[in-house]
């Protein structure tokens, strides 16, 4: 998820779906109500810890958080290099990931009715138009970075919508990559605070939709993933017919990787 979250065009939420932890992740985040803070401030540590253990799924968040953090720190420079020097190949790989993910989610839908198809179409059109937006020339002040973190994390938890792409639209992507590489603590903390607020609020909305309108929500997510294929397509600058084959092969590798992961994790009880 951490590697995907720093790739414009791929969502960490998509990886969560592939590995079978998506609904648990959303529900676990939505359960956090911060009720443990009140007894903590009163000095009742035992009650605070008891409530904290009830609210927070540590068995999920600790390994997941460590994995995401390690990937973001270690992959930031790698992604900068790949996107700068092998743009078409990188986005061909992304295309395979996204297409396979959309197929996997589609299989989980128990039949698509007219309303489900409309939901899928709405997601597809919305994502297609969103990807076509021009970047906003925003500054890099701490309030703007805070807002960018809030908006990006909402996208990151949605399969199909890339939080990194949201940062591109807000003119913050390269700036935040440099902030990570240079360990700019004010920028990192401002972004992290916005992300924390965004994920706590938005996860509640998602959890409600998945519990009450699961088929429509999943159909919408399939549409989102298909619509965002516009971004990697725009990046595939094919100069001659001879360069098409390696791009197709790399795309198929990405597709196959997702299918292998899905089969590996499908029957694991989280």
TrEMBL record:
The keyword Transferase does not apply. The chain crosses the membrane at residues 58-76, 88-106, 112-133, 145-168, 188-206, 213-231, 243-261. The keyword Transmembrane helix applies. Keywords: Membrane, Transmembrane, Transmembrane helix. InterPro entries: VCA0040-like. This is DUF368 domain-containing protein. The lineage of its organism: Archaea, Methanobacteriati, Methanobacteriota, Methanomada group, Methanobacteria.
């Amino acid at each position: 998820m951490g590697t995907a979250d720093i790739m414009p065009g791929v969502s960490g939420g998509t990886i969560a779906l592939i590995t079978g932890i998506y609904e648990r992740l959303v529900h676990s985040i939505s359960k956090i109500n911060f009720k443990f803070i009140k007894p903590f401030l009163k000095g009742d540590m035992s009650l605070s810890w008891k409530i904290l253990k009830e609210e927070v799924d540590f068995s999920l968040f600790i390994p997941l958080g460590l994995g995401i953090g390690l990937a973001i720190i270690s992959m930031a420079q790698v992604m900068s290099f790949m996107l700068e020097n092998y743009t078409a190949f990188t986005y061909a790989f992304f295309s395979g990931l996204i297409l396979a993910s959309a197929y996997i989610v589609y299989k989980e839908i128990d039949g698509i009715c007219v309303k489900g198809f409309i939901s899928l179409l709405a997601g597809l059109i919305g994502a297609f138009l969103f990807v076509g937006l021009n970047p906003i020339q925003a500054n890099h002040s701490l309030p703007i970075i805070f807002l960018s973190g809030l908006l990006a994390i909402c996208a990151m938890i949605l399969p199909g919508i890339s939080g990194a792409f949201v940062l591109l639209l807000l003119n913050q992507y390269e700036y935040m990559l440099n902030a990570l590489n240079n360990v700019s603590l004010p920028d990192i903390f401002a972004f992290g605070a916005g992300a924390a607020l965004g994920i706590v609020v938005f996860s509640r909305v998602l959890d409600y939709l998945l519990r009450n309108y699961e088929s429509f929500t999943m159909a919408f997510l399939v549409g989102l993933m298909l619509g965002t294929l516009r971004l990697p397509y725009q990046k595939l600058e094919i100069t001659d017919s001879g360069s098409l084959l390696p791009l197709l092969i790399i795309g198929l590798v990405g597709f196959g990787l997702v299918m292998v992961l899905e089969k590996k994790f499908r029957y694991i009880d989280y």
